[in-house]
Amino acid sequence: MSSDLDRWMPRHPVVLAITGASGAPYAVRLLQALVALRVPTWLIVSGHGWRLLQTESEIGDLETLRVQVESGGTPGSFASVVTVFDDTDRGAPPASGSARTSGMVVCPCSMGTVSAIAHGTSRSLVERAADVALKERRKLILVPRETPLSLIHLENLTAVTRAGATVIPAAPGFYHKPAGISDLVDFMVARILDHLDIEHDVGRRWGSIPGE
To answer: Which of 38, 90, 118, 196 makes a 20 to 30 Å CA pair with 133?
Structure first.
């Protein structure tokens, strides 16, 4: 692991949005990593995102999410790093281009959210924040989890990519010889952190795996 002095950290907050696509463990692990790395994070969870967290991770409220994120870490770290915004508040800082951020991740990202971003409808804070990331030419990372993909899905994913977003499908690899689900989750979280240009030690990289 790099020392704290060697580790590069964003100057501005990372926006993390959680929507209703399957993949709650990815979102929770990513938030855990951001908090552990002391990366300032603006968190937005859609209504369907909360239902997803409850269904897949038994996280039904913010306090339970905080406890899960801080498990095995430093108590109080969540509050010192994470600022939570209501998805219905389209006047919150993530909705404005003048509020500087280091980029945005939507993880997991529902196909409805992809469609809204592709067409600029901005009906919620999640969608508006993504719209802002695109117009300000900031990093926007979408982590969709859907299969199979219809032509509409593919066209919307193509549209957001052309607009400047990076699409990282929730499709973990197996070449690192995962021992369990947590290794598969870490594989995806590591790729997301890489594309945010955040130094980390989540998962294993190619070249560090026995038998390569």
So the answer is: 38
Domain boundaries along the sequence of the chain: 14-195
Phi, psi of 95 (to 5 degrees): -85, -5
Q: How far apart are CA 212 and CA 196, in angstroms?
A: 27
pLDDT tens-digit map of 36-51: 999 999 999 999 999 9
How far is the C-alpha of 187 from the C-alpha of 204, rounded, in Å?
8
DSSP string covering the chain? ---TTT----SSPEEEEE-SSS-HHHHHHHHHHHHHTT--EEEEE-HHHHHHHHHHH---SHHHHHHHHHTTS-TTHHHHHEEEEETT-TTSGGG-TTS--S-EEEEEE-HHHHHHHHHT---SHHHHHHHHHHHTT--EEEEE--SSPPHHHHHHHHHHHHHT-EE--S---STT--SSHHHHHHHHHHHHHHHTT-----S--TTSSTT-
Token pair for residue 131? 């719209």
Query: Residue 94's Cα: distance from chain center in Å?
Result: 15
Q: Which residues belong to the annotated binding site for FMN?
A: 20-22, 46, 110-113, 145
At the topology level, CATH places domain 14-195 in Rossmann fold (3.40.50)
Mean confidence (pLDDT) of the chain:
93
> What is the pLDDT, as a whole number, of residue 209?
61
> What residues form the annotated binding site?
20-22, 46, 110-113, 145, 175, 191
Residues of each annotated binding site for dimethylallyl phosphate: 175, 191
